[in-house]
């Protein structure tokens, strides 16, 4: 069974940090590009960050560039999102995504991140 399980979300004050984790199983993790998406209430889901299968290439939304870092550990089948200098506008449900070209596209259940004082 393909599973992507996010964890690490929670409530944090502006300027704080969180690290999200996504544990993958049931597919060839090391062959998949991994991404983090987020969706705030009333808004469309947006791509936050992505990392290539071997971890050699990363991409970030302009809104998080310089604050967030995506990484992966293929020995642990886990992808991470380190979020620093958090802002209220970062509040959203964060989703883990695994994609292998046009052949497969998997999603986790999401984890809530709330940035508020």
Summarize the helices and strands and which ones pair or pack.
Layout: E1 3-7, E2 10-12, E3 18-25, E4 33-39, E5 46-51, E6 58-60, E7 68-73, E8 78-83, E9 92-100, E10 104-107, E11 111-115
Parallel strand pairs: 2-11
Antiparallel strand pairs: 1-3, 3-8, 4-5, 4-9, 5-6, 7-8, 9-10, 9-11
For the structure shown, list the relevant keywords.
117 residues; mainly beta; 7-stranded mixed beta sheet; 4-stranded antiparallel beta sheet; 11 strands; 53% strand
User: What value does the Rg take, in angstroms?
Assistant: 13 Å
Please trace the helix and strand order, writing H or E for each element.
Answer: EEEEEEEEEEE
Count of individual beta strands: 11
Main pleated-sheet profile: 7 strands, mixed
Shape: globular
Q: How much helical structure, as a percent, in the residues?
A: under 10%
Q: Low-confidence parts lasting 5 or more residues at pLDDT below 50?
A: none
Structural class: mainly beta
For the residues shown, what is the average pLDDT? 97
**Straight-line N-to-C gap:** 39 Å
Q: What is the count of helical runs?
A: 0
Query: How much of the sequence is in beta strands?
Result: over 45%
């Amino acid at each position: 069974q393909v599973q992507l399980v996010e964890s690490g979300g929670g409530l944090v004050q502006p300027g704080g940090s969180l690290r999200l984790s996504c544990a993958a199983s049931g597919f060839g993790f090391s062959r998949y590009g991994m991404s983090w998406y987020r969706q705030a209430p009333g808004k469309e889901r947006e791509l936050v960050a992505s990392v290539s299968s071997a971890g050699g290439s990363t991409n970030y939304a302009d809104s998080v560039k310089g604050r967030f870092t995506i990484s992966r550990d293929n020995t642990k089948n886990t992808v991470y999102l380190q979020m620093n200098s958090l802002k209220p506008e970062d509040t959203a449900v964060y989703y883990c995504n695994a994609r292998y070209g046009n052949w497969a596209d998997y999603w986790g259940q999401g984890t809530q991140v709330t940035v508020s004082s």
